[in-house]
Specification:
Helix content is 36%, strand content 13%. It has eleven helices and ten strands. The strands form two sheets. An eight-stranded parallel sheet has the order 3-4-5-6-7-8-9-10. α7 crosses α8. The relative contact order is 0.15.
């Protein structure tokens, strides 16, 4: 199964398969990482208001010298901004110093207050309706809207009520958390999937997993290349490994084609070793429909 170079969104736009993730990438390091990635062939950058680095990501884009229209830029609506969707968009555009976003995601279906508690008086579905309104009113500022961390039941509720089908659902994906149920549900409705934490996490045990190691040796690449390539070989899936180290950013860009058997073998890791790194409990909204957390 050949790895994709890009994925066509339901808006008609092409989203580069490989992107640079910037979660936990600190100001000071992140602008250099973004500039380096763009100067070396990346054309997809992913950030979020919650990462507190939008301004620096914007500086990195400018520093790269790559024209803005050649870059696919994603950011995310913060949980604490779900009652002020229009204001949040304005602030993200100002921080990133860009006239438009290629993709704007609801970061979690979990409205929160400014002091970090669950905002139980707000329904995330109303937030989506506000995002739809802003998207329809400002097509010049937001090219696509989508979601992140949406389980199948949450997606179904959204699709039953939405006037705009999300372009993307960004979720944790790696061999210990394949979430095939969500990927399948998204494909069924023409929603692309973006894989975050493709290596499993910082200091990931997947990097030393014998199956991953065996496939890496077979293709003469690093275990990280295998893990990132796995997602690029899944139809309609994009992937955003994160790093601020120039050598690793370059290395992560090496995507290989995997066979069906390679993919099956990698997917089998989950059967004996299921790991979800990013759990939603901190939001105060419980398991938000993920079956492995029930």
């Amino acid at each position: 199964m050949p790895a994709s170079k890009s994925v066509k969104l339901n808006t008609g736009a092409e989203m580069p398969t490989l992107g640079l993730g910037t979660w936990k990438s600190q100001p000071g390091a992140v602008e250099k990482a973004v500039a380096h990635a763009l100067k070396n062939g990346y054309r997809h950058i992913d950030t979020a208001t919650a990462y507190a680095n939008e301004k620096e990501v914007g500086l990195g884009i400018k520093e790269s010298g790559v024209p803005r229209e050649q870059i696919f830029l994603t950011t995310k609506l913060n949980n604490s901004d779900q009652r002020d969707v229009e204001g949040a968009l304005k602030r993200s555009l100002e921080q990133l110093d860009t006239p438009y976003l290629d993709l704007w995601l609801m970061h979690w279906p979990a409205p929160m207050t400014k002091d970090g508690k669950a905002d139980k008086g707000r329904d995330w579905l109303d937030t989506w309706k506000d995002m739809e309104r802003v998207y329809k009113a400002h097509p010049d500022k937001v090219k696509a809207i989508g979601v992140s961390n949406f389980s199948v039941p949450y997606l179904k509720r959204l699709l039953d009520n939405a006037t705009v089908v999300p372009a993307v659902n960004q979720i944790e994906l790696h061999p210990a958390c394949m979430q095939e149920d969500i990927v399948e549900e998204c494909r069924k409705h023409g929603i692309a999937v973006t894989a975050y934490s493709p290596l499993g996490s910082d200091d990931s045990p997947l990097l030393t997993n014998p199956i991953v190691d065996k496939i890496a040796k077979k293709y003469n690449v690093s275990p990280a290349n295998v893990l990132i390539s796995l997602q690029a070989n899944r139809p309609q899936v994009t992937v955003i490994p994160k790093s601020v180290t120039p050598a690793r950013i370059d290395q992560n860009a090496k995507i290989i084609d995997l066979t069906e058997d390679d993919i099956k073998e990698l997917a089998s890791i989950e059967k004996t070793n299921h790991i979800r790194v990013c759990k939603p409990y901190w939001t105060g909204w419980g398991n938000i429909g993920f079956p492995d957390l029930e």
